[in-house]
Amino acid sequence: MTTLKISGLHASVAGKTILNGIDLEVSSGQVHAVMGPNGAGKSTLSAVVMGKPGYTVSAGSVTLDGVDMLALPTWQRAQAGLHLVLQYPTEVPGVAVVDVLAEAFAARGRSTDGIREQLSTEAARINFDETFLARSLNVDLSGGEKKRNETLQLAMLRPKIAILDELDSGLDIDALRDCSRRVEDATNEDGLGVLVITHYSRLLKELKPDVVHILVKGRIVSSGGPELVDVLERDGYAAFEGDQPETASSALDDLFGTPPSRN
Ligand code: ADP
Ligand code: MG
Predict the structure, then answer these.
(1) Domain range enclosing 22
(2) Bridge partners for 9 per DSSP
């Protein structure tokens, strides 16, 4: 059982405060969704947890099973079991995905025996064309193919906790189903814990959240079950954009209690 614990996290970038006190706890096998309008700080949260340069943490902590992640360089966070699926996957000319994975396996003390066979099996599982496996990482891949490639790496590396930053951006319906289903399978098969950042409920059809958090202006203004997604679909973020968390709960009351005054 692994737990990623984010407590009172405040962070800034380029002198601007973006995260205003985030508390979040994700354990093995759980799926937590973070939803929020553009510019709310969702990608900043993933960047700070993973240690992307340029971000300053002014308060709070991020621990994985009690180990301070903020004190470690990114590669050590990854070896500890954290994994980030990038919103915009990086192209790496001259390096094939199998090379990346072989290095990562070796760094983790995992045998690379049969890695190509494993890769073929995993590629087939998400309908990722094998011809792409020999190509340079993400070079000349479509948006959807890049995300399948990211999902493939996640499946192969078997991290403890994965953050998915808009896995759904650039994905068509089929790719979305294949990728989100594969991540959901990992939660059941390997006990993967997931923090999934998304704008859209469609990703959450296959990858079923246990908890949904609404992030607005660098703060979680509401947390609840999957029913929060329905509130968002109906009302948008407007109901959550006041500074007070009460605004969000009144949207929930709306859903379960008094019928809405309009329509
Ligand atoms: P989201 O992912 O929720 O859409 P982001 O975390 O990407 O939001 O961005 C939150 C805010 O931080 C935005 O206003 C964005 O312009 C700003 N921001 C993010 N990264 C940088 C950066 N490197 N330099 C300056 N501002 C940034
Ligand atoms: Mg973002």
Answers:
(1) 3-253
(2) 22
- The span from the CA of 162 to the CA of 157, in Å, is 11
Give residues (CB < 6 A) around ligand 1: 13-14, 16, 18, 36, 38-44, 54
The one-letter amino acid at 46: S
Tell me, in angstroms, the distance from the centre of ligand 1 to residue 201's CA: 22
CATH number at 212 reads 3.40.50.300
260 within domain boundaries: no
Question: Which chain residues have CB less than 5 Å from ligand 2, an ion?
Answer: 42-43
User: Which residue out of 43, 85, 168, 198 has the highest number of ligand 1 atoms within 8 Å of its CB and is therefore the one to mutate?
Assistant: 43
Q: What average pLDDT does the segment 179-203 reach?
A: 94
Q: Tell the residue nearest (CA) to atom 24 of ligand 1.
A: 14
Asked whether residue 261 is domain-assigned, the answer is no
263 inside domain: no
Report the 10 Å Cβ neighbour count for 189: 10
In a domain, 149, yes or no: yes
Q: How many domains does the chain have?
A: 1
Dist CA 79 CA 102 (whole Å): 14
Report the pLDDT value the prediction gives residue 172, as an integer from 0 to 100.
Answer: 87
More confident position, 83 or 245: 83
Please give the distance, rounded to the nearest whole angstrom, from the Cα atom of residue 44 to the centre of ligand 1: 6
Which residue has the least CA distance to atom 18 on ligand 1?
13
- Beta bridge partner(s), residue 136: 96
What is the structure's pLDDT at 192? 98
Q: Is residue 150 pLDDT above 70, yes or no?
A: yes
Residue pair 150/126 in contact (Cβ under 8 Å)? The answer is no
Task: Tell me the average pLDDT of the chain.
Answer: 90
Q: Which residues contact 121 (CB under 8 A, 6 or more apart)?
A: none
